[in-house]
Design goal:
It holds the Pfam family TMEM220. InterPro entries: TMEM220 (IPR029377). This is Transmembrane protein. It is a single chain. The relative contact order is 0.14. α2 runs parallel beside α6 and α3 packs parallel to α5. This protein is mostly helical. The longest helix has 28 residues.
C-alpha cells in the first residue's frame, strides 16, 4: 500500500510544513516591531500548529491553539484595518497589495494566519472537505508568490 493511498491529502502535509517555515520566519522578523507582543504570539502559535499538524494528527489541544491563533489573527486584522482607516486612507487601501507599507504587510500576515488556521480546523474533521484539499496548496502559492514578487521586484524603500 503506497503512502498516497493511505493519505489522499499528503500534499496538505507539505503545505503545513511550508506554512510553518513561513510563520517561523515571520516571527523572527517581529522583534524590531513596535507592537511585537501581538505579532510574535500570533506567528509562533501558527508555526507550532502547522509544524505539529505536519508531524501528526490533530488533537484537541492543537485545535484549541489553532482557534486561539485564528481569533488573534482576526483581532489583529481588524486592529490594522482600523489603523489604516484612522490614518485617512479609503476603503481601496484595504485591498492594496503594495507591500512596502507596514499596514499591508501586517494585514496580509494576519490574513494568512486566519486562512491557514481555518483550513487546518476544517481538515481536522473526520471527513475533510474539498476546500482543504485545494485550499492549502493555493494558500502556499499565494503566500510564497506574493513574498517572492515583492522581494524580487521591489527595489524601493519599505515604509515602517
Amino acid at each position: 500500500m503506497s503512502a498516497t493511498s493511505k493519505n489522499p491529502f499528503i500534499g496538505v502535509g507539505i503545505c503545513n510544513l511550508s506554512m510553518a517555515f513561513l510563520f517561523g520566519l515571520s516571527a523572527c522578523f517581529q522583534f524590531n516591531d513596535s507592537d511585537w507582543y501581538f505579532w510574535i504570539p500570533l506567528y509562533t502559535t501558527a508555526f507550532i500548529v502547522n509544524l505539529v499538524k505536519w508531524a501528526k494528527k490533530p488533537n484537541s489541544r492543537m485545535r484549541k491553539m489553532a482557534k486561539f491563533a485564528m481569533w488573534l489573527g482576526f483581532f489583529l486584522f481588524i486592529k490594522v484595518s482600523i489603523e489604516d482607516l484612522a490614518v485617512g486612507r479609503t476603503v481601496a487601501g484595504l485591498w492594496s497589495l503594495n507591500m512596502r507599507g507596514r499596514v499591508v504587510r501586517e494585514r496580509l500576515g494576519s490574513g494568512l494566519v486566519i486562512s491557514s488556521m481555518f483550513l487546518l480546523l476544517r481538515n481536522s474533521n473526520t471527513s475533510p472537505a474539498q476546500i482543504t484539499k485545494y485550499g492549502a496548496p493555493i494558500l502556499v502559492g499565494v503566500a510564497y508568490g506574493l513574498s517572492f514578487l515583492f522581494f524580487a521586484f521591489q527595489h524601493q524603500e519599505m515604509n515602517y
